[in-house]
User: Which sequence fits this backbone?
DNA sequence: GAAACAATGAC
RNA sequence: GUUGUCAUUGUUUC
């Protein structure tokens, strides 16, 4: 059914070119970072996201003027001398669909631009070497591919799922381990130092400064890449053990052939994460179950078909009601496609819309 | 091909 | 009303 090919991790031409240049390139990363072209691209991205101001109150709209007034030149020379100190991020809590809160850390606009510029430099160095089973926060990859990959693994007689939930992953990333991973590919001391400063920049919670001795801020443009660099070790470990799995950020699922194997794997991986990556597995939310009972990125898997998880389905039904109340029959197919393009992979009979 | 806009999904 | 990142899709324009 799916002739939808999942891209391999083989570097594309752009990456290959830069990798070949790596030695010269790498000693010079900090200068690359400050290239006007790189910074301009970073600013465009930050602007397009239309985010809110950080603790300095500087908005996206006011930022270009700030740049022109020479403040950027001062900032740049501080950066070049290694004397630039990033501001703390602003704490904002937003509701999660499950009723919990997501803690965001919003950097100032200028720090978002600098972080974005760093991410643009680091991505070609790291991303081409990430696991084929890692789907979150990566160019040319998305949740749909992750779900299809899981379905394909299940077809290979792996009917049991190990759902692993990392508690507060982003908040608990270990700085030392992360920097160690970074040093493997980044030799530029100035760049490493700057990234370290961003990790330790702290958080403002109601005008109260809180140090950040661990974790990466959810809201920083660099954070998604750093999280993937951190969990790349896990991917490589799982691969070396011959496991079949898919990972989307901190959400990952390992497919095995029996409950017993699953229990063993969960235990082993839990210990690996605790000792090697200093990450805590949430035992309450982790489970070994038949794939039909599993949940990954809002989907569940039954008899080779991808289905919505009950909760996701409920939300979908609400959406359908709203859309179809007015236009029922006019363009059902189009509406359905708009609501959820992955629909054609779902067993509609069994979900009984 | 590029660059704007919007809306959706994941965290 | 407040509110980040990443990815994707669609539209438009040249």
Assistant:
């Amino acid at each position: 059914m799916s002739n939808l090919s999942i891209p391999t991790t083989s570097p594309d031409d752009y990456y290959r070119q830069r990798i070949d240049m790596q030695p010269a390139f790498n000693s010079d990363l900090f200068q690359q970072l400050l290239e006007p072209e790189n910074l301009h691209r970073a600013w465009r991205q930050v602007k397009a996201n239309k985010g809110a101001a950080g603790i300095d109150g500087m908005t996206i709209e006011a930022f270009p003027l700030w740049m022109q007034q020479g403040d950027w030149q001062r900032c740049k020379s501080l950066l070049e001398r290694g004397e630039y100190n990033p501001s703390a991020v602003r704490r904002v809590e937003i509701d999660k669909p499950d009723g919990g809160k997501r803690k965001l850390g919003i950097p100032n606009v200028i720090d978002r631009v600098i972080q974005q510029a760093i991410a643009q430099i680091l991505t070609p160095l790291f991303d081409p070497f990430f696991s084929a089973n890692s789907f979150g926060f990566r160019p040319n990859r998305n949740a749909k591919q992750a779900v299809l990959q899981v379905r394909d693994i299940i077809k290979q007689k792996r009917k049991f799922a190990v759902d692993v939930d990392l508690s507060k992953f982003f908040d608990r990333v270990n700085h030392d381990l992360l920097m160690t991973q970074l040093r493997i590919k980044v030799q530029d001391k100035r760049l490493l130092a700057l990234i370290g400063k961003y990790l330790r920049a702290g958080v403002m919670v109601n005008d109260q400064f809180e140090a950040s001795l661990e974790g990466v801020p959810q809201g920083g443009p660099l954070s998604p890449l750093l999280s993937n660099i951190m969990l790349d070790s896990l991917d490589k470990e799982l691969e070396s053990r011959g496991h079949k799995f898919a990972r989307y950020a901190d959400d990952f699922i390992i497919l095995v052939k029996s409950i017993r194997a699953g229990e063993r794997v969960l235990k082993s991986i839990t210990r690996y994460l605790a000792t090697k990556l200093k990450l805590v597995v949430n035992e309450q939310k982790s489970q070994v179950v038949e794939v039909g009972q599993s949940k990954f990125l809002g989907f569940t898997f039954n008899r080779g078909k991808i289905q919505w998880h009950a909760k996701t389905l409920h939300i979908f039904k609400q959406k359908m009601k709203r859309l179809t109340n007015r236009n029922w029959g006019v363009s059902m197919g189009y509406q359905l496609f708009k609501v959820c393009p992955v629909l054609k992979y779902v067993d509609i009979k069994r979900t009984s819309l």
About this structure: Residues 44, 48, 96, 102, 135-137, 142-144, 146, 169-170, 218, 224, 227, 248-251, 297-298, 338-342 of chain A lie near DNA strand B (CB under 10 Å from a C1').
